[in-house]
C-alpha cells in the first residue's frame, strides 16, 4: 500500500484543556468550586483545584518543538501548538499527519479524573465529571464528530454512578471511557474484587470499552529515586503488562464475557512473549491453584478481550501472527513526547512494508472503527479520508519544528 | 540436530541446602551464631537465623512431584527429591534430563545472601558468607567440578568486602557471583550510584559475571494484595526488565566496559521489544536529558554486556535475530516449579527445530562455557557429554513423577 493511501485512526491522543471547560456546564452551586485556569507569575499555565496546583509539563505537549526543548518544566499556552487545546487547529494538525480520526485522553484531570477521586464532596465531584464529559463530547469531539472518537471519564469512586454515566455517555454516542490500569494503586478495590461489577455491566450493556492508559494507575514503575528519565520511560509500558495480567486472571471476563478492554499506549511487541508466558504458567498452576478460565487458555482470553495499540513497533508487527490482528490498533500520541507527528505515515509505513493490505486496513483504522463504533465513512468517502487526501487539504498549514524559548510572556518581559 | 546430540549446560538451577553447610567452615567464635537446620513440629524443615524462621516452600522444590501438589506449603526434606540437596543424586537427576553442567543458586540464604545483609555484626555476617561460599565451591560444585559452574554470594552491604571475596572466589576457580536485580529495594544504594564501583572493578579484574536472578530484589511485582499466584508468576520477569533498564542507563558499563551481567530466569521473548523501545526513547531524550552512552545505542550496549537466558521461550528464539545470539544461554530451573525436568531436551527441541546447529551449540552450552569459564570438555569428551550419552548412564535412575503426600514424617504419625 502506498503511504498516501493509508487511512489512519488514532486511538490515543491528548487534549490540553482550554480555560473554558467548565463554563456554563455546572449547576450554579458548584460553579465556584470548579477547577480554575490561571497564569502563574512565571508565565506557566496551571489549573487550581482542591488546594492543588496542576501544571502541564513540556513532555506532555511537545509536538512541533525541537527535541532539545523537551523536558519536565511547566508550559504555558503560548509555548504549545494551538492544536493541543483548539479543536479546529487540532483537526488541521491531524490532517497534516494524514490522520482521519482521533480519540483524546484528558490532561489536567488525570486519565481517570484522578483529581475528582480525592474530593470530599462526592456529589460535587460527580458534577465536575459530568461537566468535563459534556465539554469533551460537545465542544471537543462534538465540534467535528466525523473526526473524533469521543471518550468519557468515570466517577472512579462510585461504580454505580459510573454505570449511570456510561449509559448517559452512550446515549450521546460515546462508547469509550477511561479506567485505571490499577485502581488499587489509587486507593480503590482491585480488579479482583466485585466492586466494579455494576460498571462492567453498564459497559457491556452499551458496548462501551474501558481504556486503560499507561500512567492511569498514578504510579511510575521506577527502581530507585536516582533513576534518570530514561528509566521511567523504559518501564512505562510495565503498568499495562500489570493491567493485562489483572484483566486476565480476574473473574471479570468470566462474569462479563462480552466485555472488551483497551490497553492505551501499551505497545504490542511484548505481547507474544507475555501470551507464551501466561499459557506456560497456567499449564503449571491450574492443577493446584483453582484458577478457572472456563476451559480456555489465558492467551485465548487475552486475544478475544483485549484491544491493543502501538505508536511505532516493528517487533510487534513482525510478530502479529502471535496476536489477534482484529484487536490491534494504532495511535499517534499527539502531542506527547513519544508522538510521530507529523511524519506518522512515513514512520508507520516503514513497519507496514511486508503486511498485506487487508491487515493494514484493520490495524490502521478498521479495528478502531469497529470497537469504538466510529463511522467516519458515513460522511467522508474513503478516498477523501486517506493520508494523501487529508494532507492535500492543509498544504499551507504551518508544521515547521520551531523553538518556543522566546514565546513565554514572562520570558519576553525578562528580556525587556 | 537430533535430541540425543544436544549438549546442555544450565545457567540457573537451585540447591536446597543440606543441614551441614556451615559445619567445620566457621571460626570458632561464630559457630553458635550459624544458621541452624531444624525439623519443626509439623515436620517442615526450616532454618533458624537472626531470630527468623526460613522455610522452603513446595514451589521451590517440586521436581518429580505431580503438579496437583505444587503450592506454597513448607516442605520437609523427605518430600523433595534427594537431587535438591544431595550432589551425587543431583548429578544423576541432571543426567536423567541430559544435562551436562549446572550453575546452582542458593535457597534459604536468599539469592544474594539477603539474610546476612540484615545482621548487625558485619564481621560475623561476612564469615557466614565465606563459609557458605566454601561449602558451595568445595562440597557442592567441587564434588563434581566437571559438572558444575560454581557461583558465590557477595557481602552485599560492603562492596570492598565483596570485591575481596570475588578475588578469593576467582582464585578457587569461581567466575560467577549473585547480585541483586535492585539493591535499592533491599536498602542499599542503587545501580546509579558509585557505591558498587569496587565490586564491579573486582568482577572485571577476575572476569567474574554478576548474576541477577528474578526475585533477588526481594520485591514481588504485584498489583494488589488480592492478586492470585498466577499474577505474581506472570509479572515475575518484570524485576529483570527493571534490572536491564538500570544496567543500561546507569554509568556502570561506561566506567567498566569489560563488565558482563547475567539476567537469570529473565526469559528472552521480551528483549526484542525492549531493545526497540529503549532505542526509541534514547532517540527522543538524548537531545535534552544529557544521557551519554558513549556514542552507542542502548540496544548495542545491552547486546554487548547482558547475558540472557530462558527455560522454554519459543517467541524469544524465533526473534533471536533481534538479539545477540552469542550472549544467549539456557536454564533448567531444577527443582523449581517452572522447570522442564526431566523432559528438558524434548521441550527444548520443539523450539530449536528451525535453528542452525552452530547457533544451537552456542545457546545450549557454548555461550555458558565461555562466559563462565567452564570447560567440561577438558575431562569429558563431547561425545560423552550429549543428552543421549548422559541419559544412557542413568537408565535405571528413578525419575517417576509421584505423590509425596505420604512422605512427611508427621503426616505418617497423624495417620497412625
What brief labels describe this structure?
15 helices; three-stranded parallel beta sheet; homodimer
Description of the structure:
- The structure is a homodimer of 416-residue chains.
- By secondary structure, chain A is of the alpha/beta class.
- Helix content of chain A is 36%, strand content 12%.
- In chain A, strand 7 (176-178), helix 5 and strand 8 form a beta-alpha-beta unit.
- The longest helix of chain A has 19 residues, at 122-140.
- The N and C termini of chain A lie far apart (54 Å).
- In chain A, 55% of the residues are buried.
- The mean pLDDT of chain A is 94.
- At the A-B interface, helix 6, helix 7, helix 9 and helix 11 of A face helix 6, helix 7, helix 9 and helix 11 of B.
Give the gist of this structure.
Two copies of one chain form a homodimer. Chain A has 416 residues and is α/β, with parallel strands linked by helices.
How far the N terminus sits from the C terminus of chain A, by CA atoms, comes to 54 Å
Percentage of residues assigned to helices of chain A? 25-40%
- The SS-based structural class of chain A is alpha/beta
How large a portion of the residues of chain A is in β-strands, by DSSP E?
5-15%
The major β-sheet of chain A equals: 5 strands, parallel
Q: Which value, in Å, is the CA radius of gyration of chain A?
A: 21 Å
